Structures are given as structure tokens and as C-alpha cells.
Amino acid sequence: MKQTPETVILLNFGCKDIQKFARAIRDRHIYTMVMPYTVPAERVMQESPVGLIVCADKEVPARPEARAKFDALKLPTLDLSTGLGEVDAAVRFCREKCGCTGRWTLENFIDEAVADIRNQVGDRKVVLGLSGGVDSSVVAALIHKAVGKQLTCVFVNHGLLRKNEPEMVQEIFARNFDMNLCYVDASDRFLDKLKGVSDPEQKRKVIGKEFIEVFAEAAAKVDAPFLGQGTIYPDILESIPLDGNPNGVIKSHHNVGGLPKNMKFKLVEPVERLFKDEVRAVGRMLGLPSELIDRHPFPGPSLGVRHVGAIERNTLAMLREADAIVTEELIKAGWYHKTWQTFAIFVPVKTVGIKNQQRSYEYVIAIRSINSVDAVTAQVVRLPWELLETMMERIVREVDGVNRVVYDITAKPPGTIEWE
Fold it and tell me: DSSP per residue over 356-414, as a string?
């Protein structure tokens, strides 16, 4: 990771709100990095920090033995129990004791990122796996701004995308950027490999392995030594165990340490120090349209983890149509930007119902709507009853094979955001 001037390190001694706290200080144009208290002092000093903030809940005080190695660094240090009410005190400390001038702005970040990419890449080529999501799209825009036609984006359609997504992504990038975009339709290849696979983890592995193979085949034609990635800062935070115990990892991200060791590419990761909201802001500054920047997050395995059980082409089509209806009605009602994620899930259970004045025995669609800050926890959204009724009526009427709709009211925890 690249060094950032005037960095203040937040030492995490078990604070559940550490990401919110870090973002709140960044909003005052002071760059913060979160590190677990188990990190070696030498790793802290690699960032050339101007100060430390010790973040510990009242319930879990900072351990004296762990503090000693950081005290030895002789850096200005502030002890805080976390809470957004203490942001003002933290900002005063950063300015008065650490000499921070408030130079951390996203405008400056863009200029620095473009310069860094140019220095790293030179006159060579970069290949980027474009998913159509916010992170990879912003990375594509940054790298394109830096090196133009030296970038080739590879957009792989694995057959699990949302309705009209392949056409939409290609149209948006053609309209906004004069960039090299290679579209690979591997739908049949993926769906054939997934046939009969019902275990969620196995489905993820099949999708991940096949994607790497398809992407590698496309990338080989470009002959690029650099691979662009949409790694963002929460990916890194969540992949680091707080106490050194692997079980302390919130979730392992495929783009943090999950790439092959013998990979020939050198990584270009320009947004690896940004939080999600900062990535979106950078995208707007780069001219990406709202229809792309403000989309709900979408999992890497796509509809594959929203289709419970083995994926059949006909039931996948049901899910795709139902999901499109949910999104359309959410937008019409003005609720799309009031929720973090709202989507449909295919449930491989048949129930008795009545359709067209006749008995039916068809499948179930579930609707899930949640709000979250960092996707580590999530709260259920109480969508208006009238909106849910409209979604239900359209799904049952327009989606062949479905006769029942249910609403998921489970928070995270105990549930996860996705069903698989």
C-alpha cells in the first residue's frame, strides 16, 4: 500500500465502531488508517505516521502490555474510547499535536492516484476484470484517466447477472469512456459447470474457479503485465484478524491474499485506501453516471448466491425476472436510495396456490431489504406494505412458475445479507 502524507493510525483494541470513527475523521480531511493492536510496531512505522489514536471500548480497555510497544515509538498519542461524539477531540489532537493541515481530500487523491498509476505502469498495458459494480468501475475510470488505451477491461458474463446487465454495462462505458472493453459471454460454460451443484460453498468455488480461467484466457490475448483490482479498504480490514486468531477474521475477501502465488501480474489497486462512500464520491468526480455509482452492492457470485439450491436455467430465469420487478417498483416508489440492498431470492420450495382460477403448485420468491454501513451488520428495512403488495402482485402475475412471495425480516446477525 502506498504511503499517504500526514497519516494518523487508529489502533483498534476491539472497537465495533472503528470504521465509522475512521471515516468521521477522514471527513475532516485528515487521513486515518485502522490497524489491529496485534500489528508489529515496525509495520506501523512503515506508514510514517504523525500520530496514534488508541481506540478501546470502556468495556474492553487497552491492554497495558500491548500498549508498551507503541509507547516506545515516541509518537503523539491520544487515548479514546470510541464513539462519534469524540470526533472533535480526535480532530483537535490531529491538528494541534500531530501537525495535520487537512490536506486529505478526494480531489487531491484523484491527482495523486493518477500520478501513481502513470509512474507504476509507464508505457505498458493493464488488464482489469470489470464487473459493472462500483469498485471495479471507479478503478477502470481512474486507470483510464491515467493511461488511456493502455487499459483493457474484460467483462465476463457468467450467466448469473441481473436482467439486461451485460447490455447496460457495455452501453455505459461506451458512452462515458473511449476505452478498450472486451466482452466475453461465457454463460453456457458457467451454467453447465453449475448444473446439479446445490451446496453454497461449492457453488462459490465453481464460479470463482471458472471466472479465473475465463479471465486468464482473455487477459492472455492482451499481454499485459499489470492487473487492476477494485480492492477497497474494508476488504483489507475485514481480512485481518484482530487478535491474531484466524477465527477473528470477519470474512476473507478473494482480492486480499486470495490470488495465485505464481500469478504473473503486478497489481494496480488505486482505491485500496478508500472506504465505500469515498469510492462512490471519487466515481462522481470522474464523471461516472449515477445509474452506475449509486447501484446497490451486488455479490461477486451474482444471482448464484440468491438462487437457493441447484441452479436450473428455467428457475434462474424466474429469479432474474422477479429481481427486475423488485428493483423497478423500488425505484418507482422512491425507495431505491433509501436502502442499502433490496433484492429477490429464489426458494426451491413449491406451494399450493391459485392462479388463473386454477390450482397451481409452483415456487416461492423471497424479498430481502436491508440497510447497512459496512455490510458487517445489517438492519431490516420496513418497506411500505403497499409497495410489498405491488411487488408481490407483479411477481405472481408476470413470472411463470411462481405463486407465492414472502418477506425476509432477519437482521445480520443472526442471518447474513445473502441467503448463500
Answer: TTEEEEEEEEEEEEEE-SSSSSBEE----HHHHHHHHHHHHHHSTTEEEEEEE---BTT
Question: Degrees (nearest 5) of the Cα angle 181, 182, 183?
Answer: 115
Q: Which domains does the chain have, with CATH numbers?
A: 8-96 (3.40.50.880), 106-293 (3.40.50.620), 306-408 (3.30.300.10)
CB 151 within 8 A of CB 295: no
CA-only gyration radius of the chain, Å:
23
Tens digit of pLDDT per residue, the chain (420 long)?
566 889 999 998 877 778 888 889 999 999 999 998 888 999 899 999 999 999 887 755 556 777 888 989 999 999 886 555 689 999 999 999 999 999 999 999 999 999 999 999 999 999 998 988 889 999 999 999 999 999 999 999 999 999 999 999 899 888 888 889 999 999 999 999 999 999 998 998 899 889 888 888 888 888 899 999 888 887 776 555 444 444 444 333 334 444 556 667 889 999 998 988 899 999 999 999 888 888 898 888 899 999 999 999 999 999 999 999 999 999 999 999 999 999 999 999 999 999 988 999 999 999 999 998 767 689 999 999 999 999 999 999 999 999 999 999 999 989 999 999
Whole-angstrom Cα distance, residue 153 to residue 15?
Answer: 38
Measured CA to CA, the distance from residue 166 to residue 163 in angstroms comes to 8
Which residue type sits at 374?
Answer: D
Q: CA–CA separation, 401 vs 395, rounded Å?
A: 10
User: What CA–CA distance (Å, rounded) separates 271 from 139?
Assistant: 7
Nearest to 5 by CA among 126, 89, 109: 109
Q: What is the pTM of this model?
A: 0.79
Other CB atoms within 10 A of residue 242 CB: 17
Q: Go through the chain and tell me how many residues it has.
A: 420
The residue among 302, 401, 374 whose CA lies nearest residue 343 is 302
Count other Cβ atoms within 10 Å, centred on residue 414: 6
